[in-house]
């Protein structure tokens, strides 16, 4: 379900920052790539922290990985228009991008990364202009399945659901500016950083 909670006068508001979207199947290694990108790419990057109704995984930290809320809290935030986009992902849990935090960071010149699913990404692409978008995937479906199983955080039914969603998501590849095949984390990070810097240069010479 799409939630375009913006008012028209907020649409395409120019800001000094840059909005970046990173999507890709669950298990593609997006989080690892992004963590490394943030520490190694010399740009004012900031990861948007989403709100979710999913339970925290072992090691996940409130406010760093997600803001973990109840279904009730999430639906209140949604009805108050607090999300740039929000989606029910894997038919179970809700995830949303807090619009005010994102816009505040963009106003202060940050390059804000949204790590969101394809449906959420398409919703944001409709609302905002000048986005840079990346689709990260592990190359083959077999490799994706291997990574999901190795992660050991999901039950079999959840793994199957994630693989089905991955098949659907791959068909949306053409909506993204850049395809990143994550066979080697260092190369994936270097590629994303290179594309971002190229855009930064083009912006300063525009
Ligand atoms: P996970 O449960 O593995 O952390 O995330 C599951 C999926 O939800 C991933 O594809 C992730 O990119 C997506 N996701 C995380 N936060 C958001 C969000 O705020 N909005 C949307 N639409 N998807 C999100």
Which architecture per CATH? 3-Layer(aba) Sandwich
| Cofactors, ions and other ligands in the entry | guanosine-5'-monophosphate
Estimate the helix proportion, in percent: 40-55%
If you compute it from the alpha carbons, what radius of gyration comes out, rounded to the nearest whole angstrom? Answer: 17 Å
Number of domains: 1
- What is the CATH class? Alpha Beta
Adjacency order of strands in the biggest sheet: 2-7-1-8-9
What is the makeup of the main sheet? 5 strands, parallel
The CATH superfamily name is: P-loop containing nucleotide triphosphate hydrolases
The tally of beta strands, per DSSP, is 9
Kindly, what is the distance between the CA atoms of the first and last residues, rounded to a whole number of angstroms? Answer: 37 Å
On the 0 to 100 scale, the average pLDDT is 90
Low-confidence stretches: 1-11
Helix and strand succession?
A: EHEEEHEEHEHEHHEH
